[in-house]
Each structure stands twice: as structure tokens, then as C-alpha cells.
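About this split. The held-out portion is used to measure sequence recovery: a designer receives only the C-alpha cells and must propose an amino acid at every position. Recovery is the fraction of positions where the proposal matches the reference. Here is one held-out target exactly as it appears in the evaluation file.
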């Protein structure tokens, strides 16, 4: 199994530091909004990078957070017919209904930033703002988990719950009780859940987990 992780807008691959799982190769896909003309073009490039990094017959999984989740969704759409994509994790993200704004809430949630960090964040959000989205036609055939936080100031819980309309099979929902928009940064429970899912070990179907420091 080869897991590819995509960070949030304005973030870096360091947001997945410490993500190591038994029997799973973890690769972190970095991107910058200024390097692409559109989100679709970015997904094309990243999908090619995924297939080049994990040649057949390796099975693939994708974990994306916020903007990274939109990219993970688009990458999975491009690769799902290969039969190699085992699971898609979508965290802290609205479904692709084409209703993305300039990310003012995300900028506010990020708190104090340096001038350059703010510029990078806005460049990434500009990529998202130009994304037309996709109609809710249950086109995602890959088994999907939607992760969301009860106290996310950017993505309301109600938006996270709408992902079922884009998934052929009902997605699994994982509610993290706290952690804000970037709950993946220090949640060992999220990492445990990802490892459990990818290892296909029998266990309880976790629908609600509490954030651990």
C-alpha cells in the first residue's frame, strides 16, 4: 500500500510529519498554487506524479486536507479506473459544488502569518476559487472516508455531510470532536484511524473519535 498525502492551502508537506504506518509507504505531495493555471491542471500533474512514484501493482490511497482534499478527489477521479486506488480520505473540506470563495475564513483561521506566508496562502486559495466543481452524480467509485471537526470555523459540519452525493457508495464519516480546521496536525487518533483503514484489520467502525494531543 502506498499512501499519498496532500496538505492544506498555504501548508507544506511538514503538516504530515510523523505519518508512518506499518506496511504502508507514505509520500507527501507538495504543491504551490502559483505553479498551475487551474486546479484541474494541478490534479493532472499530481496524478502523473502518483503513478510514477508507485508503479503497478502497488495499491494506492490518498489523504487530502482542505485544498489538498479537493486535489485528492480530482486525482482519485483520474486514477480510479485503474483499479489500484484502495481508499480516499477527505478531511476538512466542502464537497465540489463550485461554491468556493476566496478563502477569507481560512485566512482568518490561520491566525498571525508573515507577509510571505499570507501570500502563499492566498495563491493557493486562488487556485481553489477558480475551480468550477463537479455536479453531485455519485461519480467517486473509490471507498471514501470524510473526516471533519466539530469546531472547524472554515467548513461547517453540514457541508461535510453532503459528500454522499458525490460518492457511489455511502462514505464513512469520522467526526473529530475538536482541533479546529487543521485537526490533522496533532491528532494521533486520526493517524490511528488511517492506519487501521489501510491495514484492513478488523475493528470497531469508528464514527466519532476524540482528539488526542
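Reference sequence for scoring:
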Amino acid at each position: 500500500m502506498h499512501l499519498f498525502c496532500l496538505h492544506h492551502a498555504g501548508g507544506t508537506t511538514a503538516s504530515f510529519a510523523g505519518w508512518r504506518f506499518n506496511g504502508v509507504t507514505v509520500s507527501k505531495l507538495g504543491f504551490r498554487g502559483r505553479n498551475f493555471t487551474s486546479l484541474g491542471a494541478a490534479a493532472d500533474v499530481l496524478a502523473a506524479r502518483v503513478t510514477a512514484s508507485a508503479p503497478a501493482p502497488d495499491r494506492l490511497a490518498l489523504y487530502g486536507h482542505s485544498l489538498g482534499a479537493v486535489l485528492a478527489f480530482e486525482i482519485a477521479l483520474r486514477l480510479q479506473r485503474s483499479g489500484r486506488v484502495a481508499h480516499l480520505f477527505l478531511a476538512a473540506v466542502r464537497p465540489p459544488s463550485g461554491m468556493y470563495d476566496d478563502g477569507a475564513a481560512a485566512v482568518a483561521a490561520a491566525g498571525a502569518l508573515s507577509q510571505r506566508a499570507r501570500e502563499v496562502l492566498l495563491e493557493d486559495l486562488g487556485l481553489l476559487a477558480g475551480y468550477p466543481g463537479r455536479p453531485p452524480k455519485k461519480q467517486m467509485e473509490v471507498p471514501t472516508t470524510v473526516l471533519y471537526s466539530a469546531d472547524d470555523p472554515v467548513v461547517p459540519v453540514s457541508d461535510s455531510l453532503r459528500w454522499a452525493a458525490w460518492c457511489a457508495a455511502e462514505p464513512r464519516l469520522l467526526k473529530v470532536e475538536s482541533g479546529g480546521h487543521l485537526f490533522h496536525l496533532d491528532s494521533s487518533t486520526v493517524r490511528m484511524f488511517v492506519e487501521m483503514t489501510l491495514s484492513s484489520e478488523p475493528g470497531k467502525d469508528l464514527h466519532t473519535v476524540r482528539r488526542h494531543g
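Annotator remark: The first strand starts at residue 2 and ends at 6.
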